[in-house]
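Recall that a protein's primary structure is simply its ordered list of amino acids. Everything else, from secondary elements to tertiary packing, is in principle encoded there. The following example makes that idea concrete.
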Amino acid sequence: MGESPRHKSLKAQAAGPGGKTEVPLPGGKKLDALSKRNIATEVERGGTTGAIRKAIDRLEAHNGPKVLKVPQTDMPLAEKVAKEKRTHLTISNMSETKKTKT
């Protein structure tokens, strides 16, 4: 299934000017966005534990700062999954008005 226009716009916003979207990772996976300042961002709108876990796995392949963007209603679930995986990242809602570090 193709990605929605909203997903594309969130990736472009996260990459910012000079950043890249769809950055290849080892194993044939792709990172949603990588900013010019080397901040990796994954946008996960699915809202399931499995989808969030896969997004965190993609972020773990990056060595720099990591941001996971999820809908605000999914932030507690994303925080729980990140703590279970013992991953250090920033979890943010789509509009970036609320952020949590794990």
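Residues 5-101 form one domain. The chain has a mean pLDDT of 91.
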